[in-house]
């Protein structure tokens, strides 16, 4: 049961966090794409920071 919660929680946080950051910055007329907020699979620091920001926004 915990594994399902982790998987679905991660999907929800990732989806909502990326969309919330995108639309928030779109209000201020920033020229960004949704791909700019997704994790870079090669860089551990970028992967952590993008996930952390997405998590904070969903809270």
Q: Could you explain the architecture of this structure?
A:
The chain has 59 residues and is mostly helical. It is built from 2 helices and no strands. It has helices spanning 2-27, 44-58. The longest helix is centred in the N-terminal third of the chain and has 26 residues, at 2-27. The two termini are 22 Å apart. The model has no long low-confidence stretch (mean pLDDT 75).
In short:
With 59 residues, the protein is mainly α. Helix content is 69%, strand content 0%. It contains 2 helices and no strands.
- Helical fraction equals 55-70%
Averaged pLDDT? 75
* Tally of individual helices: 2
The portion of residues forming beta strands comes to under 5%
Structural class of the helices, strands and pairings? mainly alpha
Q: What does the overall shape look like?
A: globular
- Count of beta strands: 0
Low-confidence stretches: none
- Helices and strands, in order, run as HH
End-to-end separation in angstroms reads: 22 Å
Q: Characterize the largest beta sheet: strand count, sense, and whether it forms a barrel.
A: none
| Rg for CA atoms | 12 Å
Features:
59 residues, mainly alpha, single chain
Please describe the topology of this protein.
Elements: H1 2-27, H2 44-58
């Amino acid at each position: 049961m915990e594994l399902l919660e982790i998987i679905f929680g991660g999907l929800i946080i990732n989806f909502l966090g990326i969309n919330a950051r995108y639309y928030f910055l779109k209000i201020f007329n920033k020229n960004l794409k949704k791909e700019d907020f997704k994790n870079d699979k090669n860089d551990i620091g970028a992967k952590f920071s993008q996930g952390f920001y997405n998590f904070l926004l969903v809270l």
